[in-house]
Fold this protein.
Amino acid sequence: MERYLPDEAATLALGAALAAAAPSGCRIWLHGDLGAGKTTLVRGFLHALGWRGPVRSPTYTLVESYALTGHADVHHFDLYRLADPEELEYLGARDLLDGDGISLIEWPQRGAGFLPPADLEVFLTHRPPGRAVRVLGHGERGLAVVRQLERALPA
Ligand code: ADP
Ligand code: MG
């Protein structure tokens, strides 16, 4: 799926649509340069699920988990500062990634070799004044999410 996101509100709306579509255990990789809108998308995702607090990139802690009432946990990874994929082992990331929670992962390429395959990959790119987004589904679970997104966000 490809869309143009003209402003921040559109990125938040994509995050919200993704929250409505992503099943428990879903693993979502968020690709894009610094400032592409990855954390904004996560913010839209969490706010749609009722989270009222701040959502920041866990750049130094690498992962932030959100416990949400009536919904699977959400694990937000930011691997920008990950020096070695093995660090993820010490963080207990394996349990988070293999559990029922939904994982949203910024800079997944830094975790190559450790991360299990993605169900969904989101590619955000600067296209002034907004952003272009491409969403790729893998396997039956990923493809089902993309089909739902396409209905929720008309081109
Ligand atoms: P990243 O996590 O990819 O580094 P952020 O989510 O922190 O990026 O976003 C960086 C900036 O981009 C923020 O100021 C945000 O408001 C802005 N932004 C997000 N989506 C859009 C969009 N579709 N159009 C214009 N600006 C956007
Ligand atoms: Mg970020």
Remarks:
- The helical segments are 8-21, 38-48, 87-90, 93-98, 139-152.
- The chain has one domain: 2-152.
- The beta strands are 2-5, 27-31, 63-66, 74-78, 102-106, 120-127, 130-137.
